[in-house]
Design goal:
By secondary structure, the chain is α+β, with helices and mostly antiparallel strands. It folds into 3 domains: 11-122, 2-Layer Sandwich (Uridine Diphospho-n-acetylenolpyruvylglucosamine Reductase, domain 2); 126-243, 2-Layer Sandwich (Uridine Diphospho-n-acetylenolpyruvylglucosamine Reductase, domain 3), CATH 3.30.465.10; 247-339, FAD-linked oxidases, C-terminal domain (Vanillyl-alcohol Oxidase, Chain A, domain 3). The chain has helices at residues 35-39, 50-56, 77-89, 149-157, 174-178, 187-190, 218-224, 258-270, 307-317; strands spanning 3-8, 46-47, 70-72, 96-99, 115-118, 132-134, 140-144, 161-163, 199-203, 209-212, 233-243, 247-255, 282-289, 319-329. The two termini are 36 Å apart. 22% of the residues lie in helices and 23% in strands. A hairpin with a 5-residue loop joins strand 9 (199-203) and strand 10 (209-212). It is globular and about 65 Å long.
């Protein structure tokens, strides 16, 4: 069998172990028919449908299962704030968790006996691009926390722009990756996504709407970024933009010697200045192992004609190491991109 394991060139993550939001403490099941919930006009947006409950009780990791009492389908951030306020003012608060596409791995987007907030439902109510707005000076984009990064990319490309830092998989929500770290092969040079945020709008554990940045409500700003959803729910993020590349040179290098592989990777990582013209724009390493079908080692990344040779190398050595590198170029540099050291 051939199996692939991905190792970003630079890994940054924040692990928050102290829960400071009392609303996240689960004490008893939520009564979705409670008259106070009906009074704040949430009853029609709370679903107890078995399929919705089942979907909200699982995540990408498949390790943890926790069933909520209901799923909130908000049409605006005010719906989320109303739910949090109801829980906070309740004599026994219930758990609340925001869920985008559910790519958490240890149940961070679950709320046992509480309410899971389906953040993607807001995207359906922010039509005509209102959830993604590029600034007049084109230096940043204001993006709803429920938006997918693929939609952010498509919207900014219309202006010839793109965010600075990405995740490898773009069908994730903005609020979701900013609540973790947001890493990819660009992280070694540009930092994770949480290092590329100018400001955010956050709903706190007391249902307050606060705008935060490195200079305004900075403690909240740095707590929410990478905070695993424990310090507030992101409803808007201001993301810096830069000119999108005209083209990319994409190369995969294979090694049968681990020392040579890591030596080259470390050398390429060391050239990481944003103004360093020789620096790569993407660098990621992977292992190709004799433990599965070619599909498990991202065979689509290699020309089909090379598959037999790669399989032969893997069979011979047991493990093959791969560096995946990318260099951006434009009309001025397209003829010299192959000569970059």
């Amino acid at each position: 069998m051939v199996m692939s394991f991905q190792f970003p060139a630079y890994f940054t993550a924040i692990f928050i172990i102290t829960r400071v939001m009392s609303i996240m403490k689960i004490s008893k099941p939520l009564d979705v028919h409670h008259k106070d919930i009906r009074a704040v006009d949430l009853a029609t947006k709370l679903s107890v449908d078995p399929s919705a409950i089942e979907s909200a009780s699982r995540d990408f990791g498949g390790i943890v299962k926790a069933e909520p009492e209901a799923v909130l389908h908000p049409s605006a951030p005010q719906d989320i704030a109303a739910l949090i306020k109801f829980s906070y003012s309740n004599s026994v608060p219930f758990g609340i968790a925001a869920k985008g596409h559910g790519h958490s791995v240890r149940g961070q987007a679950m709320a046992e006996n509480g309410v899971v907030v389906d953040m993607r439902s807001m995207a359906n109510n922010r039509r005509n691009g209102t959830g993604i707005r590029v600034s007049i000076d084109r230096l940043y984009a204001d993006v709803g926390g429920e938006q997918l990064w693929i939609d952010v990319l498509n919207a900014t490309l219309e202006y010839g722009l793109a965010p600075v830092s990405w995740t490898d998989y773009l069908y994730l929500t903005v609020g979701g990756t900013l609540s973790n770290a947001g890493i990819s092969g660009q992280t070694f040079r540009y930092g994770p996504q949480i290092s590329n945020v100018l400001e955010m709008d956050v709903i706190t554990g007391k249902a307050d709407f606060l705008t935060c940045s490195p200079r305004m409500n900075s403690e909240l700003f740095y707590a929410v970024l990478g905070g695993l959803g424990q310090f507030g729910i992101i409803t808007r993020a201001r993301i810096p933009l830069q000119p999108a590349p005209k083209g990319v040179k994409w190369v995969r290098l294979l090694y049968d010697d681990f020392s040579s592989f890591t030596k080259d990777q470390e050398l390429l990582i060391s050239k990481n200045g944003r103004k360093d013209k020789s620096a790569l724009d993407y660098l990621e390493g992977s292992l190709l192992m004799d433990q599965g079908s070619p599909d498990n080692w991202r065979s689509s990344f290699f020309p089909h004609k090379d598959h037999p040779k790669i399989i032969s190398l893997i069979t011979k050595h047991g493990i093959i190491y791969c560096l995946e590198i990318v260099k951006h170029y434009d009309d001025r540099t397209k003829h010299t991109v192959d000569k970059v050291n």
